[in-house]
């Protein structure tokens, strides 16, 4: 017996009248004629249940055991199993006999019932996607709702802090990061702190145009190379920054007590181990060291 509110077992003609005929005036009802001995019936049943659940109440499924409900079978002239019939407004309007692929079942349903709404995106995934698109205010709005429900949600706090940082609210971002508990998101936390560091440093450095002018005059100006990389990191121009830091490390690995190497590691924390730039530049850094 089904525990779903959208799936029912028919028990007698009166049950069929109420659960199928009457309900079909409100929304389509899919009727599955099946039997215990019918292997294709049992293969089809979970697929019908899955599809029905996805419609979230806009479609109902009624199961008729043909070995028991022989009066109903005779009434509708069911000759082979499985047979599936779609009822609307008290009448059969469509259906099929024999097991069918999911695509064919969905195609049969299309003219009769609205497509199910896509599943709501996970709030964290939605916020991360918005952040990646540079839509920081929109990401913040999603995160605020999430944090209202759970103000200790570590991943949400970290991403919220990064949004604040991108808007220049560095002090508030630091305070939010201070509220993160536990070590589960240690790398993400380190990355967010690195972002704050880059943004703070960039605010105290010469502007990009001045640094590029210095490098045009002297391509080996280590200070200008490093400062330009920081400005690029603050603007999320990660690839040119990583390239500049790596070149500086190769050219002068002792610069400022190994600062290019330390900064590369900070960027790796910021982007995360799965980022393709991290994979590529970790390999390049390893080759440069060894």
Automatic annotation (TrEMBL):
GO terms for molecular function: protein-disulfide reductase activity. Signal peptide: none annotated. GO terms for biological process: response to stress. Keywords: Disulfide bond, Electron transport, Redox-active center, Transport. The keyword Transport applies. GO terms for cellular component: cytoplasm. Residues 1-114 form the Thioredoxin domain. SUPFAM superfamilies: Thioredoxin-like, TPR-like. The keyword Cytoplasm does not apply. CDD domains: ybbN. Pfam families: Thioredoxin, TPR_19, TPR_20. Belongs to the thioredoxin family. This is Thioredoxin.
């Amino acid at each position: 017996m089904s525990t779903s509110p959208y799936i029912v077992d028919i028990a007698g003609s009166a049950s069929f009248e109420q659960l199928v005929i009457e309900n079909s005036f409100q929304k389509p009802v899919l009727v599955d004629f099946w039997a215990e001995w019918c292997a294709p019936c049992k293969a089809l049943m979970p697929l019908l249940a899955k599809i029905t659940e996805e419609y979230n109440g806009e479609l109902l499924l009624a199961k008729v055991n043909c070995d028991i409900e022989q009066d109903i079978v005779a009434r509708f002239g069911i000759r082979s199993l499985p047979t599936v019939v779609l009822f609307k407004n008290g009448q059969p309007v469509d259906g099929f006999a024999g097991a069918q692929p999911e695509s064919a079942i969905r195609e049969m349903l299309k003219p009769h019932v609205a497509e199910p709404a896509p599943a709501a995106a996970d709030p964290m995934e939605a916020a991360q996607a918005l952040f990646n698109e540079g839509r920081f205010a929109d990401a913040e709005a999603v995160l605020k709702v999430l944090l209202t429900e759970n103000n200790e949600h570590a991943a949400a706090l970290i991403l919220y802090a990064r949004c604040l940082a991108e808007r220049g609210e560095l002090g508030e971002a630091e305070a939010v990061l201070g509220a993160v508990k536990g070590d589960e998101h240690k790398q993400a936390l380190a990355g967010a702190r690195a972002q704050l560091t880059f943004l703070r440093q960039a605010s105290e450095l010469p502007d990009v145009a001045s640094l590029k002018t210095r490098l045009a005059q002297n391509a080996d100006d280590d200070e200008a190379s490093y400062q330009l990389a920081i400005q690029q990191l603050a603007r999320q121009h990660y690839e040119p920054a990583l390239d500049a830091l790596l070149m500086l490390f190769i050219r002068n690995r002792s610069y400022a007590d190994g600062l290019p190497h330390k900064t590369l590691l900070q960027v790796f924390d910021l982007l995360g181990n799965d980022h393709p730039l991290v994979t590529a530049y970790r390999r390049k850094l390893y080759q440069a060291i060894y």
